[in-house]
Amino acid sequence: MQQEQNTPEAAEAAAAEDNKEVTPSLEEMIRQAELKAEEHHDAWLRAKAETENVRRRGLEEVEKARKFAAEKFAGDLLAVKDSLEAALATGDQASLESLKSGVELTLRQLVAAFEKQNLIEINPLGQKFDPNLHQAIGMVEGEGEANTVAVVLQKGYLLNERVLRPALVQVFK
User: Fold this and answer.
1) In the chain, % of residues over pLDDT 90
2) Checking phi first, is residue 80 left (phi over 0); if not, alpha (psi -120 to 50) or beta?
């Protein structure tokens, strides 16, 4: 039988041999770190390019939305324009009554177009004066509560609940 060596030198030699097989060399570790750094750098460059593309596409979409924002509304107004042109084309042949009915039809088309686009009319006759919705340009004497709208000189409009044009009014003193 062979005698086993239990000396400390033998144990160190065996451990060093095991470490060589398990622990990679310093050069190998540096090479792996460089590969990993290169992968991370490549991923960063791709992410940066993708972010730039998303930003650019977003700006293009905003520009298109701004450019064509009135497209639906303009399409709705084309029927109104066609009706007005047809009324003018009839010339002398149209009676006053048919002309009036044509204008009423055109007005209904315009009101329908406004409603589709959430353009709401403000007609505050008899309502309490509201400086957020109305613009008072005078006061009148009369039998009404003070600061109540007595006369509407020009109707106002809201677009999506935002004042597009305030109503021009006169209020009771």
Assistant:
1) 50
2) alpha
Chain-centroid distance of CA 101 in Å reads 40
Asked whether 107 and 77 are in contact (CB, 8 A), the reply is no
Coil, strand or helix at 92: helix
3-state secondary structure of 129: coil
Q: What topology does CATH give the domain 118-173?
A: Nucleotide Exchange Factor Grpe; Chain A, domain 2 (2.30.22)
Whether residue 2 is predicted with pLDDT greater than 80 in this model: the reply is: no
pTM of the model: 0.59
Whether 83 contacts 99, CB under 8 Å:
no
Q: How confident is the model at residue 89 (pLDDT cuts 50, 70, 90)?
A: confident
Residue type (1 letter), 101: S
β-sheet bridge partners, residue 135:
168
**Could you state, in order of their start, the residue ranges of all structural domains in the chain?**
24-69, 70-117, 118-173
H helix intervals, the chain: 8-22, 26-67, 71-89, 96-116
